[in-house]
Amino acid sequence: MWAIWLIAAGALLVFEMMTLTFYLLWLCIGALVAAIVAWIAPEAYVLQVVAGCLVALGLTIFTKPLSRKFRASKGFKDVGTELVGKQGIVVEPIEEGQYGIVKVGGDTWSAKSAVPIGRDERVRVLKRSSTIIEVERWEEIS
């Protein structure tokens, strides 16, 4: 059973690396703890699940105030908040219900839009989630 927990931890770590939210990291660590418990007590399935859940929940609860304090500290800059309102260029077209690629400054982002937008069109960033921005066509103000 410990091998299954290790595989789950590895998969969670890979998904965490794609999202960069830290929530999946805590679940990954919980799965590692469950793997250790499974290695020590292979027949105690309930103990494995409870130990993993308690560790993941504890990390989530105790790191929330730390991350809030870090974000409130002087000098912290969240790149995402600076993106809102900026202009970008569509690198890969944005189709209805699908993501495209938009270049904003020197960075490329996965982007979605309420309407289809073609390649090389200028867009404005409306909002940003963890890795995806929402854009609209750039309208010149006269």
Give a verbal description of the structure.
One of its GO terms (cellular component) is plasma membrane. Residues 82-137 form the NfeD-like C-terminal domain. The protein is of the alpha+beta class and 142 residues long. The protein has two domains: 2-73, no CATH class; 86-137, OB fold (Dihydrolipoamide Acetyltransferase, E2P) (Beta Barrel), CATH 2.40.50.140. Helices cover 49% and strands 21% of the residues. A five-stranded mixed β-barrel has the order 1-2-3-5-4. A hairpin with a 3-residue loop joins strand 4 and strand 5.
Report mean pLDDT, rounded to a whole number.
Answer: 86
- Percent range for β-strand residues: 15-25%
Compute the number of structural domains: 2
Poorly predicted regions are none
Straight-line N-to-C gap: 66 Å
* Biggest beta sheet attributes: 5 strands, mixed, barrel
Radius of gyration: 21 Å
Give the total of beta strands.
5
Provide the structure class: alpha+beta
Helix proportion: 40-55%
Number of helices: 4
Which sequence of strands runs across the widest sheet? 1-2-3-5-4
Quick one: overall form? elongated
**H/E series:** HHHHEEEEE
Transmembrane segments: 12-39, 45-63
Main location: membrane
Domain NfeD-like C-terminal: 82-137
Protein name: NfeD-like C-terminal domain-containing protein
Short description:
With 142 residues, the chain is α+β, with helices and mostly antiparallel strands.
